[in-house]
Structure formats: C-alpha cells, structure tokens
Design goal:
One of its GO terms (molecular function) is glycine:2-oxoglutarate aminotransferase activity. Its cofactor is pyridoxal 5'-phosphate. This is Aminotransferase class I/classII domain-containing protein. It comes from Chlamydomonas eustigma. The strands form 2 sheets. This protein has a 3-stranded antiparallel β-sheet with strand order 2-5-4, covered by helices on one side. A two-stranded antiparallel sheet has the order 1-3. It has helices spanning 2-7, 17-43, 67-75, 80-92, 119-140; strands at residues 48-49, 58-59, 62-63, 97-98, 111-114. The chain is mainly α. The radius of gyration is 19 Å and the shape is elongated. Helices cover 55% and strands 9% of the residues. The chain contains 5 helices and 5 strands. It has one domain (16-140): Aspartate Aminotransferase, domain 1, CATH 3.90.1150.10.
Length: 141
C-alpha cells in the first residue's frame, strides 16, 4: 500500500490532492531552506567551501585541513578527513562520512553530511558544526 501511494500520488480532483500538494510543496520549500542554511554556514567557515545542495539530500563541503592535522592523522594511521569526522562525532554527535570513502582527489579533504534533519534543528547543527570547526582549526594551526 505504501509503495502504491508513493508511485501513484493523488491527482488533481482527488479528495486528498489539495492536502497532498500543500504538504509536498511545504516540504520541498523546507528542504531548499535547509540546503541554503547548511551551504551558507559551510561557506562562512575559514577553509571550507561547498557547492549549493540542489536535487540531493547531501552536502559535500571541501575542508582545507592544517598541516598539523594531516600529520596527526597520519601518526594515528588514519586519513585526515577520517580524523576530522571522528573528532566531529565525538565532540558534537554529528555523524558525517569522510570524503576519502568517495574517491576524492588526492590532497583534498571532504565530508558528506545530510540536510534531512528537521528545519527546526538545523540551527543547532550549524552552530555545533561551526564551533567544532573553529576549535579544530585553532587546535591544529
């Protein structure tokens, strides 16, 4: 039944069409706002760039890590972006995926995160991520 509802949504004239269309429109607008919120936050951080998340539920910011962070990761036997993601998880509870798992270009560091948390908690995500990033960069500068 669920799959049938997904692939055959209400059509104009159906009793539930107006409600369906309202909810769908609101959710898509919310996803767009969340994408802007996350992309803008990343691009406002020192050493972080991110293309606008469009048509997807993931953001892939590029993070320029200080040489000391790269050295520390190598001493631990970890990829530098893995160190960053693990430290982010430990400090904030934010779970991300290191870009090294996606075949990133040699010498660059990325992570993947999602824009799916509800809009009302995205400010908390942005704040926690920003605070962590600033502390991480300061620690390894």
């Amino acid at each position: 039944i669920s799959i049938s509802c997904l692939v055959n949504p209400p059509k104009p004239g159906d009793d539930s069409y107006e409600q369906y269309n309202k909810e769908r429109t609101e959710e898509l607008a919310s996803l767009r706002r969340r994408a802007h919120m996350v992309t803008n936050a990343f691009n406002n951080l020192e050493g972080v760039t991110c293309n606008f998340t469009e048509g997807a539920m993931y953001s892939f910011p590029r993070i320029r890590l200080p040489p000391k962070a790269i050295e520390a990761a190598k001493k631990m036997g970890k990829a530098p972006d893995v160190l960053y993601c693990l430290r982010l998880l430990e400090a904030t509870g934010i779970s991300t995926v290191p870009g090294s798992g996606f075949g990133q270009e040699e010498g660059t560091f990325h992570l993947r995160t999602t824009i799916l948390p509800r809009e009302e908690v995205m400010n908390t995500f942005v704040s926690k991520f920003s605070d962590f990033h600033q502390k991480f960069i300061k620690e390894f500068s």
